[in-house]
Amino acid sequence: MSTISEISIPASTFVLGETLEAVPEATFDIERVVAHDTERVLPFVWASASDRETLEDALDADPSVEDVELLSDLEDEWLYRMAWIDHVEFVVHALLEEQATVLNAHSEDGRWHLRLLFPDRESLSRTYEFCEEHDIRLDVKTIYEMDSERHGRFGLTEEQSEALSAAFEHGYYEVPRGVSVEALAEKLDISHQALSERFRRAHGNLIENTLIIGADKETDSRPTPEL
């Protein structure tokens, strides 16, 4: 049975550690990640910071990444394609050796938080053993089977499931809408920005785990972000 694990790892022992040290307010959110070989990972990364030029200077100086290319500029958020080339052994192992899928990955407070879907519990165990053998310190937050709980079946966190359920119950998806994002955020006691981000990740996870799961990883059917 497919198994989902939520993992935390210090950025200093993974990727973009120097960038996050130089620009501590920066945040990164992975749109898509692919491992083409055993030495590099090629993600599409949404980034935000107070100043794009400062962020890009830090990325250029960071030894864990190379070939950084700006794909989309939304003024306060930017989409990059880049190559992760250092400290990515465990992700490469999970993707190539264990056929895992990165459902979600984002940076927060100097750490990376990843949500990985494994074909079964054994493949997760082998990945954890691989990390121990290579002195990679993972903090495993949760492990659950996809069918063990309602939100787990669709790759949603509990907070994402709560937000989508509340949105549906209050008519957010009706035409016209029965509630605004601002009003719904107030009901959930979170900020408007936090709710918008939760919606974006939740919708992405729903697509990932309903329309995309089971697709051949060699011919990933997700559209590549437009150049």
What does this structure look like?
The chain is α+β, with helices and mostly antiparallel strands. The chain has helices at 17-22, 52-61, 89-97, 121-133, 150-153, 158-169, 181-188, 192-212, and strands at 3-10, 27-35, 41-48, 65-73, 78-84, 101-108, 111-118, 139-145. β4 and β5 form a beta hairpin. α3 packs antiparallel against α4 (121-133), α6 packs across α8 and α7 (181-188) packs across α8 (192-212).
Keywords:
227 residues; alpha+beta; disordered C terminus
SSE topology sketch:
Elements: E1 3-10, H1 17-22, E2 27-35, E3 41-48, H2 52-61, E4 65-73, E5 78-84, H3 89-97, E6 101-108, E7 111-118, H4 121-133, E8 139-145, H5 150-153, H6 158-169, H7 181-188, H8 192-212
Antiparallel strand pairs: 1-7, 1-8, 2-3, 3-5, 4-5, 6-7
Mean pLDDT: 84
Counted by DSSP, the helix tally is 8
Report the count of strand segments.
8
Alpha-beta content class: alpha+beta
- General shape: globular
**Biggest β-sheet, characterized?**
4 strands, antiparallel
Strand order of the largest sheet: 6-7-1-8
Helix fraction by DSSP (H/I, runs of at least 4): 25-40%
Short overview:
By secondary structure, the chain is an alpha+beta fold. The chain has helices at residues 17-22, 52-61, 89-97, 121-133, 150-153, 158-169, 181-188, 192-212, and strands at residues 3-10, 27-35, 41-48, 65-73, 78-84, 101-108, 111-118, 139-145.
